[in-house]
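Hi W.,

Here's what went into the run:
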Amino acid sequence: MDTRTGLPVVGMIGGGQLARMTHQAAIALGQSLRVLAANPDDGAALVAADTSIGTHTDLDALLAFAKDCDVVTFDHEHVPGDHIRALVAAGAVVRPGADALLHAQDKRVMRQRLGELGVPVPRWAPVRSTEELAAFGAQVGWPVVVKAERGGYDGRGVWVIGSPGEAPAGVELIAEEKVPLVRELAAVVARSPFGQVAVYPVVETVQRNGICVEVIAPAPGLTDERAVEAQNLAIRVATELDVVGLLAMELFDTGSALLVNELAMRPHNSAHWTIEGARTSQFEQHLRAVLDYPMGDTSLTAPVVVMANVLGGEPGGMSIDERLHHMFAAVPEVKVHLYGKQVRPGRKIGHVTALGDDLEAVRASAARAARWLEEGS
Amino acid sequence: MDTRTGLPVVGMIGGGQLARMTHQAAIALGQSLRVLAANPDDGAALVAADTSIGTHTDLDALLAFAKDCDVVTFDHEHVPGDHIRALVAAGAVVRPGADALLHAQDKRVMRQRLGELGVPVPRWAPVRSTEELAAFGAQVGWPVVVKAERGGYDGRGVWVIGSPGEAPAGVELIAEEKVPLVRELAAVVARSPFGQVAVYPVVETVQRNGICVEVIAPAPGLTDERAVEAQNLAIRVATELDVVGLLAMELFDTGSALLVNELAMRPHNSAHWTIEGARTSQFEQHLRAVLDYPMGDTSLTAPVVVMANVLGGEPGGMSIDERLHHMFAAVPEVKVHLYGKQVRPGRKIGHVTALGDDLEAVRASAARAARWLEEGS
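Here's what came out:
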């Protein structure tokens, strides 16, 4: 409890753009997000009054950080489970808990558990040797997708290989069939300790080089039946794993079936569109969920909402400030979110959101705005 | 320029809720608002990473604060004009400038100037003695409204008196006729140094005890002709006075005419509804204006938007956190903004915004939510 305001203190471990945007949502709720950032230049550290500097692997830093928080939650899933258990042993309330979060940290555990629950997933196997990988490839056909069991994100830790010899060395891997997918979807749900769930409309996510570049809400042409199937999968997994806070479920749409790809238990890129595009943003919803407030309305504010990520372009040319000027003039209908990051090629430095009635027009607006910010043209 | 981000630094003098909400908007633009707060517990000081403590009457504090700002602007209009001129002489860019801001600081100057511009205002006179006040009252009829020339806000510094003897002593006053008004309106416009203007839909403001309690956008039943008249008045005054940033113009609607009541040159309570209810919030718009970015779209996101202020209730009973829980459960369609203030009777501690199609339903939602937060019922 913040004695100055009479309102709770939520601590977030990690100071990236997710914490930055959660802080914006916290302000409206009368709070100020407490941030543990690795670096004083992290996106959230630049804007949040109550920032401490420390790494998520430093238990002493975590314990000191958690001390005055009513709830501790996460900007990323890299905090070791034993550290989370130590926080809880010291009296902290941590949401989601270590047992739930493990399924967003370890792909092998996640695949195993989803299989036990009967949730549809790609064919997969843990592979501990070239022989096991060769055997799996012979069974499902090459190429095969191999993934690091832990630590991957944004296309890192994932490789598509044509033969066993191409597998990266020194990493514990799982192998998966390369699913012949039509597109990727995401279903995002928030769940409170009380067990209330609120689910967002299912979206289509568009990837380039393994990085999400565009999200379309709602997913175009998705049947109601299929959308409900995806939402029910997300609700069921959130409930079975006892997730508290947000669960983002990435799905493959093969045309004839849905298969679960990844899970994240925090605000997620596939729901950035909710800031303007839903009555309750994912950031506010995550705070409401971990605080056991009643969940907010997840309905769309427009028939079509498109988010485009802004990736850092090549250095040189126009400054980001000049690009922003031009973007505002050229695409006035778009809303911008910049993360306060130094521009580096391929790095997510912000996103833009467009809303409207016409899918192609809205997509074009978002793409044009992202291009202005990426390339200055 | 913030060298960490390549984006500009806007400094705001004053650390109240207007700075707090401007900081939220700054975050989306990749910035972090620089705040000069009188008190470390001020609403913006609780949430903004880059806060200095100092008063707006302390020139040394102002000079130190302005040093690394690309632009300095205001959360309130109380900074002395000579201090602003000293900032400019020291190389600071201050928007709006001292000559414009004077018209939001001094009601006598404002009335004089609006009269010269032919802008319709209530009949008024500066009154320096009981005799002058008696003469004015004899001319326009009692009761008469008297206002402190400087320093008033939120109903403070305004008195309705039935005879000259009731006038407060020791204050420089102007007297105005008590206009037989049907309702109050507000027109809010943003203007950039380049001279671009963006005007919001005209709203109706509802006052209780001199404090705004409700704002309805757009103003119900206002003819297009009258709305355009109000908007044109605001644009004209912004341009003539060389306002940069937001200008909020409060108007009396007498049924047959519009009369200008007050001017404010900063984000204003009559446009808090724009956070969810307009494509560009007034807070983002103010930043864009003072930075000379192209202005954002001011159109409504729903046919009807209603904002209700949340005033502190009597002490005791439910905590604000409990009230918030109940409010979320009882009125899920409403968005809340709490300012991080200690609850004191009559103090503005937050606001709520409701959107929809049906005026009476939307008003009822907003009122119900405000009542939950004010009274816990």
